[in-house]
Design goal:
Elements lengths: L1 E6 L3 E3 L4 E9 L6 E7 L5 E7 L6 E3 L7 E6 L4 E6 L8 E8 L15 E2 L3 E6 L1
Parallel strand pairs: 2-11
Antiparallel strand pairs: 1-3, 3-8, 4-5, 4-9, 5-6, 7-8, 9-10, 9-11
Length: 126
Amino acid sequence: QIYLAESGGRLVQAGDSLRLSCLASGRSFLSYAISWFRQAPGQERDFVASINFSGGSTDYADSVKGRFTISRDNSKNTVFLQMNGLEPEDTAVYYCAAQAHPYKSGGYYAHEYDSWGQGTQVTVSS
């Protein structure tokens, strides 16, 4: 079992940048692809970005391409989500999730994932 804990969410203004962190513990971090999802009130939990075990394969939702960057530091068991040019539409609870197939980036659907963090709130004011 891998355990995940997100941090870094807060209230920001439109156009600002923010970096979220996802710290993993438990089973080998290198055994998992890690993804970020987000969920706005009354909405589905949507895929945002994903990264494979080495960082050599990444994937992004169209809505965040060019603005968000996912990366990982395996020496610190941490995945980051750098968010630039934030928009009010980015307001949501952001979750990181682990999928036990390390060699490619993760899938687009929440049910494909084995473990989830508790989430961190990002609010972007206009």
